[in-house]
Amino acid sequence: MNTNQQQAELITQQIIQELKAQGARPAIQAANAVQTLDIPVGISNRHVHLCREDMDVLFGYGSTLTRMKAVKQPGQYAAVETVTLCGPKGELQKVRVLGPLRSATQIEISVSDGFALGIKAPVRMSGDLQDSPGIDIIGPCGRVTRHGGAIVAWRHIHISPSEAEQFSLRDGMEIDVRIDGHRGGILSHVRVRVSADAVLEMHIDVEEANGFGLRNGDCVRRVITECHYG
Predict the structure, then answer these.
(1) Cβ(129)–Cβ(159) under 8 Å?
(2) Are 121 and 130 in contact, with CB atoms under 8 Å apart?
């Protein structure tokens, strides 16, 4: 190879390196623009949300829920009242009712609860009750037979619109989170729920929490996919 060819090759390599650097810089800046997000964990045990009609049957006409303690999401609370869930195979007693009352009754259980009851509840977001199995709910004043409404809650994150915008999140999107500790790992398909009065929190059920060694108030971190260049 003569001197001219060597110089040409050197210039070509320099141009290629400069182009790579220019192309990578915006992508790296975009990735760095997504801020780190630490999310407190809220662990949900089995519980029931009741409609007005079912509340009347189970606890008496015109009855109201008795607030026991507030939960983190504004306006929601655990009530003193409990019910028994009765399925084809077995029953679960002292299942907590959460307030306030809703337009439709919803029963949130774990997968193992479904085995105990003898039903197969689908993994769904709250309110998505179509084609979900039914169950009997027993209260001190009566019994309600529901022909749908039992679900396993899809893991999700509550976040306000301002925080969602700050961290480049949209309602309905799914993200991955990283859990540290001896039983830590990556939890995928965590649904984002954006609402005006939301307090930042990730909701998972007891089984998922136990699998990762999580407790109420622990924090998980959003996983940000990094760009790699050859």
Answers:
(1) no
(2) no
Question: Residue 107 in contact with residue 151, Cβ under 8 Å?
Answer: yes
**SS3 annotation, 88-148:** CCCEEEEEEEEEEEECCCEEECCHHHHHHHCCCCCEECCCCCCCCCCEEEECCCCEEEECC
pLDDT, tens digit (0-9, with 9 covering 90-100), for 16-70: 566 555 554 444 344 445 578 999 999 999 999 999 999 999 999 999 999 999 9
Of the candidates 163, 185, 225, 230, the one whose C-alpha atom is nearest the C-alpha of residue 30 is 225
Task: Give 151-191 as a DSSP string.
Answer: EEEPPEEEE-HHHHHHTT--TT-EEEEEE-STT-EEEEEEE
Q: What does pTM read for this prediction?
A: 0.80
Element (H or E) spanning 86, and its range? strand 77-86
- Confirm if 200 and 160 have CB atoms less than 8 A apart: yes
Q: Would you tell me how many other CB atoms lie within 10 Å of the CB of residue 42?
A: 19
> Is the preceding omega at residue 100 within 30 degrees of 0, hence cis?
yes
Phi, psi (5° rounding) for residue 162? Answer: -65, -40
